[in-house]
Write a structure and sequence with these properties.
Elements (H helix, E strand, L loop, with lengths): L1 H36 L1 E4 L4 E3 L11 E5 L1 E7 L7 E11 L2 E12 L5 E4 L3 E5 L10 E6 L3 E2 L1 E2 L13 E5 L8 E10 L5 E11 L27 H10 L10 E2 L3 E2 L1 H11 L8 H4 L4 E3 L9 E5 L5 E9 L2 E5 L6 E5 H8 L2 E7 L1
Parallel strand pairs: 2-6, 8-14, 11-12
Antiparallel strand pairs: 1-3, 4-5, 5-6, 7-9, 9-10, 12-13, 13-14, 15-16, 17-22, 18-19, 18-22, 19-20, 20-21
């Protein structure tokens, strides 16, 4: 009797243990299958900006088979370079740690602060281009040191700033000055300001004695439709400057602009600034009328530029590639360009 009971107990114990073992094996197998199925696919390139205080983990992940719950090991965004992040993903009760590679980069260029965007000097007044700089600094590198542009190797040098552009304070004109800064990671920034050197007087020059344009005919009546001429000039303000250009489709240079305007009202004039100084008849600047051609040049009478006078001390002209066709005050252009009106021609 006792042997039968013992045999029964032993039999059922073996069965129970076997069942437990089978359940454990099934659990381990299922756990293993679920564990292996948890996948987090990172982006091919994961980058974060230096100093990023907050970011979404999902932005670093291309695909997730499971649910990303948390970050077990974070990265330091105040350290530039490649780092490893450990995230925890989960399916049901199964959790898995996955490592992601993240690179912290500095892509922000240095900040250049200047005191004034436009500076005006009188001829002969001293000026140092560095005096207009308030600061040049990078958020990682701090203040950046000055390097003379003559010694800059743009392919090799980093973590510097330099200044391009010279101001001739003995000659009236507008001088652009460009400040360029590069941090140690190659991020570049630049800013340009203008220095205008002006003469002491605000006098418009009349043609000089050694030019042939001295016999004025102020009563001469223009042969063309002056109003249409001026209206057309206004409509072309904003057109681009192109050397040799003489049409809205291509662009204009100074003499090409004036030539085009007159051609549109049926008057054929010369194409060059030099020849336009002899078109029509000469009038004095104080008797200039809208539609007259203003010829600009140096004190020796050499022509350099052509413009269309539109009245009230203003003109429309094709200036340069950066400004194109604009409206200008004759007085301001005289001060800024270093040239003068050497002839006024009425066609």
């Amino acid at each position: 009797m006792n042997n039968d009971i013992y045999s029964s107990i032993k039999k059922y114990s073996v069965i129970a243990i076997s069942i437990c073992l089978i359940m454990l094996i099934c659990y381990i197998f299922e756990y293993s299958m679920v564990y292996r199925s948890i996948k987090v696919t990172a982006n091919s390139v994961n980058t974060l900006e230096y100093g990023s205080s907050k970011y979404d983990i999902r932005s670093l992940v291309k695909d997730v088979d499971g649910e990303v719950l948390s970050v077990k090991k974070d990265i330091d965004t105040n350290v530039v370079g490649k780092q490893e992040m450990v995230v925890v993903a989960k399916k049901g009760e199964v959790a898995k740690e996955i490592t992601l590679s993240v690179e912290v980069k500095d892509t922000v260029a240095p900040e250049i602060k200047i005191k004034e965007e436009n500076i005006s000097l009188t001829v002969g007044e001293d000026f140092d281009v560095l005096n207009n700089l308030e600061s040049v600094a990078d958020k990682i590198d701090g203040n950046i040191e000055f390097l003379d542009n003559n010694s800059v190797n743009e392919e090799a040098d980093t973590n510097y700033y330099t200044v391009y552009g010279e101001v001739n304070n003995d000659v009236a004109g507008v001088y652009p000055v460009t400040v360029k800064a590069v941090d140690k990671y190659g991020n570049l920034s630049s800013i340009t300001y203008n220095v205008e050197v002006v003469e002491d007087t605000n006098v418009i020059s009349t043609p000089v004695n050694n030019t042939p344009v001295v016999n004025y005919n102020n009563d001469y009546i223009p042969t063309g439709d002056v109003n249409s001429l001026v209206d057309l000039a206004y409509s072309l303000v904003g057109s681009r400057y192109v050397s040799g250009g003489a049409s809205p489709e291509v662009g204009f240079d100074c003499s090409g602009f004036v030539h085009y305007l007159y051609s549109r009202i049926g008057i054929n004039i010369s194409r060059s600034s030099t020849a336009q100084m002899y078109e029509g008849v000469a009038v004095s600047y104080d008797q200039a009328m809208p539609g007259d051609i203003l010829s600009w040049g140096y004190v020796d009478g050499s022509p350099t530029h052509s413009a269309l006078y539109i009245g009230n001390g203003q003109m429309i002209h094709a200036t340069n590639p950066s400004m194109g066709v604009i409206v200008s005050d004759v007085a301001s252009w005289t001060r800024g360009s270093g040239t003068h009106v050497i002839a006024v021609r009425r066609v």
